[in-house]
Write a structure and sequence with these properties.
The complex is a heterodimer. Chain A is an all-alpha fold. In chain A, about 75% of the residues lie in helices and about 0% in strands. Chain B is an alpha/beta fold. Chain B has 10 helices and 10 strands. Chain B has helices spanning about 45-50, 75-80, 95-110, 120-135, 150-160, 180-195, 205-215, 230-235, 240-245, 245-260; strands at about 5-15, 15-30, 30-35, 60-65, 65, 80-85, 165-170, 200-205, 215-220, 225-230. The radius of gyration of chain B is 19 Å and the shape is globular. The model of chain B is unreliable at about 250-260 (pLDDT under 50). Classes of the chains: A mainly alpha, B alpha/beta. At the A-B interface, helix 6, helix 7 and helix 8 of A face helix 2 and helix 3 of B.
Chain lengths: ~325, ~260
């Protein structure tokens, strides 16, 4: 099974990030890591959107991934980054498998509101948990990578490489997934659930598997964020964070896995500069950007590439 | 001939409304059966109950000797009972080839693959074969939204056939299709049906189509089967003419007008 053209592009982009990491300043390495981590959560949102579902609660799994890293180090003494990420995935998958049983029964606004409700429940629990720092959260301890201690456990370069590697693996997997029977079945469900059943497929089973995978990927995004930021707090589960992921998903579109990474980078850069230049009205700048995207690129930034390709052909 | 479908006392009520009542039908393998009746006569309700879309209020359904009442569409499809719809049920934003590849993938296994592309060479070949048989190869890479109604009907039926059914239920296959296209569409469908040796039960309003393609007719009126038999016999029946085809009523009116 050789690499497809778009997969070669993804590998090339990952290699380019790896090489550029040696020359870019720390703040850009950190920003890029956050963008990759956010993109992973956004990819989970995109997976659901392709099935016709919008989640305003993906922050739930993002937060679980983040807290798994923090708590794994703090309470269990685990320091290996991959093990910490894995712990987050295990907890997330276990929870998603339970919540998925309920959520896959719902569609449209009901699904969106239920996902939001579950993430806000976690937020409420964390805010009341004084052992976990309540609203302030707590710091993530020093971590290692495969028992190697990179840059004294705080390496912004190492976490960027880690994020790039994990991001590439997820992107390659999802690129195949979106073109597979399972991935296309999600789009089929969005289009016509009756026909899906009359083809002999279980729409609930498909949505369930899709939901659990999306949650696991979201958790990885949360873990990478906490490794990079060195801190976790309950706002990771707050609904505005989940809203940001939906924002980025709309910005990028569902056309290609790369769209989420590009959109996440644009979002974080726009937000960074908007806060810098217009500290009191940066939200308005983001609002205007979203409005422009909805008006002029309803299928997201990726439609610019597909449009160009269509014109060329 | 082997019995393939049997319904006994099949009924469906919506509150006080009787949509279908005491339907007793036996269909043998290889039969092409037409279902006729005016709007609201219970034809689609009957098809919906048999294909698991609507649970019956009473009665039994047996397919190939085993009871199927209460089974959902997925299980029925795997037993060999497939259907098309009055309004084609397609994935509008997907290409025709993706619609067919999806159907083929679903018919191959209960568990969908996550890493293998849905368009495999084998599926593409099978999709091309059915597209050729249905005469809609020109739409292969088009979105379904770009297809005319007649082509959509054919695609809907093609998808139903890809499940390798033993029995196919077609709900008004020619509705929404122009009069000129109806016969071409039915010729195409019936040729594929014959080639695959399927048993077919189809709902139809056009009596010309019924006379041309079926050997047996079930006439519905007010949720009840009022006549079941060979096509000529059913269409000549006075009650069928009065309640379904409307010929007798027209004749009566003419007679009355003439008498006056």
């Amino acid at each position: 099974m050789g690499l497809q053209k778009s997969e070669i592009m993804l590998v090339a982009a990952a290699l380019a990030i790896g090489l550029l990491s040696f020359v870019i300043p720390d703040w850009l390495a950190f920003t890029t890591t956050l963008a990759i981590a956010s993109a992973l959560v956004v990819l989970g949102v995109v997976m659901l959107m392709r099935a016709g579902l919008v989640s305003f609660g993906q922050g739930l799994y993002y937060c679980i991934g983040g807290y798994a890293v923090g708590m794994g180090g703090r309470f269990l003494g685990v320091t290996d980054a991959l093990l910490l990420i894995g712990m987050g995935v295990v907890v997330t998958v276990a929870l998603a498998m339970v919540l998925g049983l309920l959520l896959t029964r719902y569609r449209e606004i009901f699904f969106a509101m239920l996902t939001l409700a579950f993430s806000m429940i976690l937020y409420g629990i964390l805010v009341k948990s004084h052992n976990l720092g309540s609203t302030d959260g707590f710091g993530v301890g020093d971590w290692t990578l495969l028992w190697f201690d990179p840059e004294g456990g705080k390496g912004s370069r190492t976490v960027l490489w880690l994020a790039t590697g994990v991001g590439l693996a997820v992107a390659l997997f999802l690129n195949r997934y979106f073109g597979s029977s399972m991935g296309l079945a999600c789009e089929a469900i969005r289009e016509n659930e009756v026909r899906v059943e009359y083809m002999g497929m279980s729409r609930r089973q498909i949505l369930y598997i899709n939901y659990v995978i999306a949650a696991a990927i979201g958790s990885v995004g949360g873990s990478l964020t906490s490794l990079a930021a060195g801190h976790v707090d309950p706002t990771m589960a707050y609904w505005t964070i989940s809203g940001e992921f939906v924002f980025i998903a709309l910005l990028g579109g569902t056309g290609h896995v790369a769209a989420s990474f590009i959109a996440a980078m644009i979002f974080i850069m726009v937000r960074t500069y908007a806060v810098e230049l217009f500290p009191n009205s940066w939200q308005m700048i983001l609002g205007i950007v979203l409005l422009m995207i909805i008006l002029f690129l309803p299928k997201g930034i990726w439609s610019l590439f597909t449009r160009k390709r269509r014109v060329a052909s | 001939m082997t019995e393939i479908l049997r319904t006994e006392g099949l009924s469906r009520y919506f509150g006080a409304v009787v949509a279908a009542e005491d339907i007793n039908v036996t269909i043998t393998e290889g039969e092409i059966v037409g279902v006729i009746g005016s709007n609201g006569a219970g034809k689609t309700t009957f098809i919906n109950m048999v294909t698991g879309y609507l649970p019956p209020s009473a009665g039994t359904i047996a397919f190939d000797g085993s009871p199927i009442k209460g089974l959902g569409p997925r299980k029925l499809m795997r037993k060999g009972l497939s259907r098309s719809f009055q309004i084609p049920q397609l994935f509008l934003e997907l290409s025709v080839l993706d619609n067919l590849s999806m159907a083929l993938s679903a018919s191959e296994s209960r568990h969908l693959e996550m890493m293998r592309p849905v368009r495999t060479p084998e599926r593409i070949a099978a999709a091309d074969e059915i597209l050729t048989q249905m005469g809609i190869t020109q739409y292969r890479e088009e979105m379904v939204t770009a297809m005319p109604q007649g082509a959509r009907k054919l695609l809907d039926i093609a998808i139903a056939m890809l499940a390798n059914p033993r029995m196919l239920l077609l709900d008004e296959p020619t509705s929404g299709v122009s009069t000129e296209e109806k016969h071409t569409l039915m010729d195409t469908v019936m040729e594929v049906v014959k080639r695959r040796g399927l048993t077919v039960l189809f709902v139809e309003h056009d009596m010309e189509i019924v006379q041309k393609y079926v050997t047996r007719v079930l006439a519905f009126a007010s949720g009840v089967v009022i006549k079941d038999g060979p096509v000529e016999e059913v269409l000549a029946d006075a009650k069928v003419q009065e309640l379904v085809t409307g010929k007798r009523r027209g004749k009566n009116i003419e007679t009355q007008e003439g008498g006056a």
